[in-house]
Backbone:
């Protein structure tokens, strides 16, 4: 009898520990069983994910940064054609993540989508390398036909890379965040840190690519310079697959786009139907997973559960905030365009060295790399003690700070341009290019705040069935910002160059008013910040940040 009571008492003591050993978010291990906390997820899984991210950034930026040089020197394209081709390819790389996110959330899951996407990207990089090897493999062709063959092979490879990265990019972020249980306070803190270290890893890969990878391409040829990224990404694929047993997996919940369309169609069909006074009468199933999979005996195009309606409402509430973030990238896009043009009109000598204007972007990258550990290890704990929030400050406050930094960066650029133009008109010694450093530093601070904040925000606010799709919104905002930047520059040039005037942004900046353009962008940035603040104050959070 005593022995039986002792056994029951032991079971009662052990029961909470057994329950606590499993995750609370419904995640599974690779065998399809409930995930055990001490065997799966956490930083043990994220290390391999961040390693894959590092390899992907090394490979992608290793091709992207010097692609214009390859197109102009090897394929003999004009500057305009090369710039257009690179811009189109980059925009495609930022748009394909939406398609990859839909596939991941609807059918394959994040892990399988990443593996397939990575394989396609590796094959595309090998194809790009093959384009540089063609003249050595086929020696009898004419120069014109060889250049055409190289272009075909190269662009086939580039767009294979774009579609491969479409499956890899959004899933890496959301799959890494899936490794932390939102129901565990300690893991919730780690999830916030994960987004910081994700951007840190990305910038580290970018720094190495701008120096090491470009140097290899310039000194050892394009065949090797384009093959190395393929080998690096293959290493990243190996890291991703090798740690498969340590991952936590989320089940797919059906096409998110279909679920949104079902709500819209059902709402139109029942436009004149008044909602009941008792909200408990609204249609919902006790098992949310079943309703998401569509297992209930109902016509989903005529009757949607409350969960689906709330998902659509969440997306609609996020759209104004997303638009403000997109304009933020319109401002930061100047770092790769008008900032460089401004630097070309300045004194690029620093001591006995000549500094390429585009290399000033190193200040932006290094700022982000240095500040992320300080933000994560010093600022967040201090802010947590003051605010009581797990992340120190809310995601919306963090994004707002980034938007403010972008406006300040435009103002700093305007002040530098005012000084540069005044010195140039006075015939004095040209202004040193190092005067641009503060504006690049401000852009780097903005990336730390806005880029990391918006990734965390879109993931944390996304409905369970749309985690990857909402994460892809971050990449689409970058593409939208780049397109809008091109539109703004074109509109300003057209509006200010009428009547024979040189305009604000002529080829010779000494004849224009680039400072006015920067002041205009600073003013629009302030208006964007006001609009964002207004939307953020009215935003109804899905859960506390």
Residues:
């Amino acid at each position: 009898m005593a022995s039986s009571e002792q056994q029951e008492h032991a079971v009662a003591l052990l029961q909470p520990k057994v329950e606590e050993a499993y995750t609370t978010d419904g995640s599974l291990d690779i065998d399809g069983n409930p995930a055990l906390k001490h065997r799966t997820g956490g930083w043990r899984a994220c290390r391999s994910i961040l390693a894959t991210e590092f390899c992907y950034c090394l490979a992608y930026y290793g091709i992207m940064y010097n692609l214009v040089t390859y197109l102009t020197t090897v394929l003999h394209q004009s500057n305009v054609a090369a710039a257009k081709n690179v811009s189109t390819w980059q925009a495609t790389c930022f748009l394909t993540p939406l398609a990859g996110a839909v596939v991941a959330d609807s059918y394959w899951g994040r892990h399988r989508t990443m593996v397939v996407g990575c394989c396609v990207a590796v094959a595309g990089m090998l194809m790009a390398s093959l384009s540089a090897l063609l003249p050595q493999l086929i020696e009898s062709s004419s120069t014109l036909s060889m250049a055409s063959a190289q272009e075909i092979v190269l662009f086939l490879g580039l767009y294979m890379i774009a579609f491969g990265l479409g499956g890899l990019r959004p899933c890496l972020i959301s799959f890494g965040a899936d490794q932390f249980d939102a129901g565990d306070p300690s893991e919730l803190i780690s999830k916030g840190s994960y987004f910081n270290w994700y951007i840190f890893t990305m910038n580290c890969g970018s720094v190495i690519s701008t120096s090491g990878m470009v140097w290899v391409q310039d000194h050892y040829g394009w065949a090797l310079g384009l093959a190395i990224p393929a080998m690096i990404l293959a290493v990243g694929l190996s890291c991703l697959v090798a740690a498969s047993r340590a991952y936590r997996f989320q089940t797919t919940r059906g096409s998110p786009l279909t679920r949104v369309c079902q709500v819209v169609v059902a709402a139109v069909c029942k436009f004149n139907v008044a909602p009941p006074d008792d909200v408990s009468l609204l249609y919902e199933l006790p098992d949310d997973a079943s309703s998401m999979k569509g297992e209930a005996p109902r016509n989903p195009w005529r009757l949607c559960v409350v969960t689906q309606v709330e998902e659509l409402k969440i997306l609609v509430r996020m759209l104004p905030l997303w638009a403000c973030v997109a304009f933020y990238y319109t401002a930061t896009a100047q770092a790769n365009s008008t900032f460089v043009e401004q630097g070309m009109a300045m004194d690029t000598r620093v001591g006995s060295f000549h500094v390429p204007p585009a290399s000033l972007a190193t200040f932006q990258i290094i700022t982000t790399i240095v500040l992320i550990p300080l933000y994560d290890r010093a600022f967040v704990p201090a802010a947590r003690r003051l605010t009581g929030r797990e992340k120190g400050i809310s995601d919306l406050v963090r994004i707002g700070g980034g938007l403010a930094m972008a406006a300040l960066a435009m103002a700093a650029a305007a002040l530098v341009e005012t000084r540069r133009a005044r010195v140039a008109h006075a015939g004095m010694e040209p202004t040193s290019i190092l005067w641009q450093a503060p504006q690049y530093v401000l852009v780097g601070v903005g990336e730390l705040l806005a880029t990391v904040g918006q990734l965390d925000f879109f993931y944390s606010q996304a409905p369970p069935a749309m985690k990857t799709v909402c994460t892809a919104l971050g990449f689409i905002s970058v593409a939208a910002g780049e397109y809008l930047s091109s539109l703004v520059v074109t509109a300003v040039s057209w509006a200010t160059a009428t009547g024979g005037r040189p305009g604000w942004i002529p080829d010779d900046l000494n004849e224009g008013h680039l400072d006015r353009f920067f002041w205009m962008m600073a003013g629009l940035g302030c208006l964007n910040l006001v609009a964002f603040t207004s939307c953020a104050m009215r935003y109804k959070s899905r859960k506390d940040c």
